[in-house]
Amino acid sequence: QVQLVESGGGLVQPGGSLRLSCAASGSMFSIVAMGWYRQAPGKQRELVAAITSAGITNYADSVKGRFTISRDNAKNTVYLQMNSLKPEDTAVYYCNLDHNTYGTNWPWGQGTQVTVSS
Prior knowledge:
- The chain has about 120 residues and is mainly beta.
- The chain is built from one helix and ten strands, in the order βββββββββαβ.
- It starts with a strand and ends with a strand.
């Protein structure tokens, strides 16, 4: 059973930056496409960034040019660098399999809260 542990969230002012990390257990991490998702209060969870096992990335229009997803397969870890943060980026952030590629997800972790506010 894969376990996902997200970290790195916090309170940041508009225009600020945060770097999220997600550590995954298990041996399959290096061969699967991963994604970062977020869920704001009262909204559905959405995929905001994805990365293939080879490092090809894709982003939602709402974060393109501001967020960067990366991975370290040796550490079973995927990262999300978030710059120029806006109040509308406020959400709980999760990592998981890229649902667009596989049509499914592993069990969700606890997520990490990101709050953008002055």
